[in-house]
């Protein structure tokens, strides 16, 4: 088990790091020299049309001479989603390098997602054991947010859909119904009043039961028919109703005939 | 007589103790190799497959006797393709045949290397996987193993999926995986799942020492894919591994330690990773099936073909998962129910009911109120998640509108009419009673006309 503590000794050394940002009207917005190994602490703002340039020299630590590593990338890593955008750097024989990010011709990935990007310089090559990752600074990409077209489908739970039911038919307000109910019942006032005035009564009921038997039965059968109609309104069907009705109407007919002849006899 | 008895007992024993294949789709594997001697390189891997009761057949792709199909049916259930170098595949195993194999439900484990021929690169493109050019490798100057030969191509893979349908927790959290091979780029189709990828400092390029990277590489950083998995719509699985050496005995047994790091492991995670990967690819893991589904009105049990709008129904579905060699209750929590007529009208997440350990499927239930639109609806459970088999279970029902007597019976706007009719009835009966029994009082003077 190797437990030796390895000192992070880079094989490469960077020097003469300079960055510059020029706007589209060729106005120099930023020009700084960054002392390696510290990073540039202020965020570098880039809007559409700006041009970012960086130059540096990469030397072999041992020989202090310029070296051309296999991998020399300037990587922009989005702080939002970890997306990485590399820029390839061509290093000249003496180790001098120049890298440019022109917002006019930047990759679409960058132009469609504004935000903060971490700017890192990654240098590595074969057979060198200690590659270099140097955090240069932070880029603030300020471009208008573009809708990047249809986003790729990802399998996952979809949003729930709750069906919105059509609202019940709107009926007139209940107080309107109640007031018309009252209006419908008003004639009763007049009826009862008129009857009271002319002295209406049911005193003949007090007679001997036999003489008013048929009348009572007849009225009873009328009541029964009305109750049947109420039941038909609530739960019976036409066939059941007609069945009952045939029976009840025979009773009503017979008792009615008798009752009316009784009344005629009595009145004459 | 005794001989017959013996034969009978033998046949019985063989019949009773017949081994069930561990995979849900079969155990016949075709292994394609570049050359016969390669078999010895992966001896541990192949032996572990044979211990899991797979029948392996080793062939070269240039062999004219090998045929994926026999009388129109698949002759094998799975294919392991460790023959990236071969250019001339015979017709019966060429990319077109392999594609037909997948379309008929066969699974493929494809191993590639830096010497990947155009034949297999074209095959991978059918699945939205883009391998880099021949002679390129995955290079990472920051994450190579200490046993690397200076080219920094023997890397410790950093990014691993945390999808437990594909890899077990032990593998996800265990020692890193050794990889040496070719990179690929993954497309955006939802059928693909990234399984293993490189770190942020990796890139894919040729390894000639005296040149710089001067063209944009195919992939850089965490987009460098090392292992990807695809599950086709018919649930066939194809896994793409950029390094055949990942399965070699040497990598299985090798200790692993990243350069410039003190953390080291006596054995790499390759053997367990390969085991999980083959379990998933050969349909032993992450396989789902629906055992039954029911729908009925609340307080009833009969499954109707015709429901009414605004009916309250209960929908249940039972889903089973194959894990550890037997079917057991599935543990997903986001199974959704949809009621669809051209577009979904209702989408609701079903609640899983608790199960006892012996139960083979988990029941999911939902209380649904049917929409107030009538027509022919499909009750569908469309469960597609990365790593698990796709489930699309549908039943068709008709929903009818209200019958004439299912509308609200008494309407508040009709109260005046009800009272009017009642009032008439009462008035009639009262009047009849009075007519029979009224005794005129002496107050009213009978006007007698002469």
TrEMBL record, chain A:
Q: What does this protein do?
A: Subunit of the oligosaccharyl transferase (OST) complex that catalyzes the initial transfer of a defined glycan (Glc(3)Man(9)GlcNAc(2) in eukaryotes) from the lipid carrier dolichol-pyrophosphate to an asparagine residue within an Asn-X-Ser/Thr consensus motif in nascent polypeptide chains, the first step in protein N-glycosylation. N-glycosylation occurs cotranslationally and the complex associates with the Sec61 complex at the channel-forming translocon complex that mediates protein translocation across the endoplasmic reticulum (ER). All subunits are required for a maximal enzyme activity.
Supply the source organism for this entry: Gigaspora margarita
Supply the PANTHER family for this chain. DOLICHYL-DIPHOSPHOOLIGOSACCHARIDE--PROTEIN GLYCOSYLTRANSFERASE SUBUNIT 2, RIBOPHORIN II
Which parts of the sequence belong to the Ribophorin II third domain?
A: 17-141
Q: What top-level branch of life does the organism fall under?
A: Eukaryota
In its UniProt entry, what is this protein called? Ribophorin II
Every Ribophorin II C-terminal domain range: 165-267
> Is Calcium set as a keyword in this record?
no
Q: Which InterPro entries match?
A: Ribophorin_II_3rd, Ribophorin_II_C, Swp1
Q: In which pathway does it act?
A: Protein modification; protein glycosylation
Look up and give the membrane topology term.
Multi-pass membrane protein
User: Which key words are in the record?
Assistant: Endoplasmic reticulum, Membrane, Signal, Transmembrane, Transmembrane helix
TrEMBL record, chain B:
Residue intervals passing through the bilayer: 415-437
What's any one GO cellular component for it? oligosaccharyltransferase complex
Where in or outside the cell it occurs: the entry states: Endoplasmic reticulum membrane; Membrane
Q: Keywords assigned by UniProt?
A: Endoplasmic reticulum, Membrane, Signal, Transferase, Transmembrane, Transmembrane helix
Bilayer disposition of the protein: Single-pass type I membrane protein
| Recorded GO MF terms | transferase activity
Renumbered to this chain, the signal peptide range is 1-21
Q: Where is the OST48 middle domain?
A: 295-438
Domain OST48 N-terminal stretches: 28-281
State the source organism's domain of life.
Eukaryota
Q: In which pathway does it act?
A: Protein modification; protein glycosylation
- Known partners and oligomeric status: Component of the oligosaccharyltransferase (OST) complex.
What protein am I looking at?
A: Dolichyl-diphosphooligosaccharide--protein glycosyltransferase subunit WBP1
Organism (species): Gigaspora margarita
């Amino acid at each position: 088990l190797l437990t030796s503590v390895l000192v992070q000794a880079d094989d490469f050394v960077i020097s003469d790091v300079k960055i510059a940002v020029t706007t589209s009207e060729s106005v120099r917005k930023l020009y700084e020299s960054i002392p390696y190994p510290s990073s540039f602490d202020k965020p570098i703002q880039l809007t559409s049309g700006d041009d970012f340039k960086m130059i540096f020299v990469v030397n072999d630590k041992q020989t202090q001479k310029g070296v051309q590593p296999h991998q020399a990338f300037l990587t922009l890593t989005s702080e939002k989603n970890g997306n990485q955008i590399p820029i390839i750097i061509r290093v000249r024989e003496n180790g001098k390098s120049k890298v440019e990010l022109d917002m006019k011709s930047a990759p679409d990935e960058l132009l469609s997602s504004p935000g903060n990007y971490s700017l890192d310089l990654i240098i590595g090559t074969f057979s060198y054991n200690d590659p270099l990752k140097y955090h240069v600074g932070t880029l603030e990409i300020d471009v208008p947010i573009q809708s990047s077209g249809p986003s790729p489908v990802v399998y996952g739970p979809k949003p729930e859909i709750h069906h919105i039911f059509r609202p019940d038919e709107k009926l007139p307000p209940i107080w309107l119904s109640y007031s018309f109910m009252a209006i419908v019942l008003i004639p009763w006032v007049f009826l009862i009043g008129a009857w009271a005035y002319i002295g209406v009564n049911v005193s003949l009921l007090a007679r001997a039961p036999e003489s008013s038997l048929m009348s009572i039965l007849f009225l009873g059968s009328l009541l029964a028919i009305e109750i049947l109609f109420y039941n038909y309104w609530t739960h019976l069907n036409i066939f059941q109703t007609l069945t009952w009705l045939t029976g009840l109407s025979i009773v009503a007919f017979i008792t009615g005939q008798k009752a009316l002849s009784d009344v005629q006899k009595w009145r004459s | 007589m005794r001989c017959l008895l013996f034969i009978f007992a033998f046949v019985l024993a063989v019949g009773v103790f017949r081994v069930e294949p561990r995979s849900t789709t079969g155990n016949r594997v075709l292994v394609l190799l570049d050359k016969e001697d390669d078999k010895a390189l992966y001896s541990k891997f192949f032996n572990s497959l044979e211990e899991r009761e797979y029948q392996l057949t080793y062939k070269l792709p240039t062999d004219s006797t090998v045929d994926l199909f026999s009388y129109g049916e698949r002759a094998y259930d799975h294919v392991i393709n460790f023959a990236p170098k071969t250019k001339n595949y015979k017709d019966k195993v060429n990319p077109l045949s392999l594609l037909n194999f997948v379309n008929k439900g066969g699974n493929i484990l494809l191993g590639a290397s830096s010497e990947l021929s155009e034949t297999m690169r074209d095959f991978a493109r059918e699945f939205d996987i883009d391998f880099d050019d021949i002679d390129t490798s995955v290079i990472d100057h920051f994450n190579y193993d200490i046993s690397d030969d200076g080219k920094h191509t023997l890397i410790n893979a950093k990014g691993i999926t945390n999808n437990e349908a594909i890899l077990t927790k032990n593998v996800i959290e265990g020692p890193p995986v050794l990889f040496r091979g070719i990179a690929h780029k993954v497309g955006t189709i939802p059928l693909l799942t990234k399984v293993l990828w490189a770190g942020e400092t990796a890139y894919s390029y040729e390894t000639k020492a005296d040149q710089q990277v001067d063209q944009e590489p195919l992939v850089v950083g965490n987009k460098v894919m090392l292992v990807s998995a695809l599950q086709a719509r018919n649930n066939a699985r194809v896994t793409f591994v950029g390094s055949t050496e990942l399965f070699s005995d040497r990598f299985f047994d090798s200790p692993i330690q990243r350069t410039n790091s003190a953390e080291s492991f006596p054995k790499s995670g390759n053997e367990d990773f390969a085991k999980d990967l083959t379990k998933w690819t050969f349909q032993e893991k992450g396989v789902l099936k629906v055992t039954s589904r029911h729908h009925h009105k609340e307080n009833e049990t009969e499954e109707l073909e015709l429901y009414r709008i605004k009916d309250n129904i209960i929908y249940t579905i039972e889903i089973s998962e194959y894990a550890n060699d037997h079917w057991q209750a599935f543990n997903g929590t986001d199974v959704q129910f949809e009621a669809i007529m051209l577009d979904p009208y209702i989408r609701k997440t079903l609640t899983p009911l608790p199960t006892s350990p012996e139960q083979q499927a988990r029941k999911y239930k939902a209380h649904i109120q049917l929409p107030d639109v009538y027509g022919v609806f499909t009750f569908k459970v469309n469960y597609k998640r990365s790593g698990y088999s796709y489930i699309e279970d549908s039943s068709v029902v008709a929903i009818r509108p209200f019958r004439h007597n299912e509308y609200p019976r008494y309407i508040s706007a009709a109260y005046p009419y009800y009272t009017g009719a009642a009032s008439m009835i009462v008035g009639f009966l009262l009047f009849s009673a009075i007519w029979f029994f009224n005794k005129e009082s002496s107050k009213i003077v009978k006007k007698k006309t002469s």
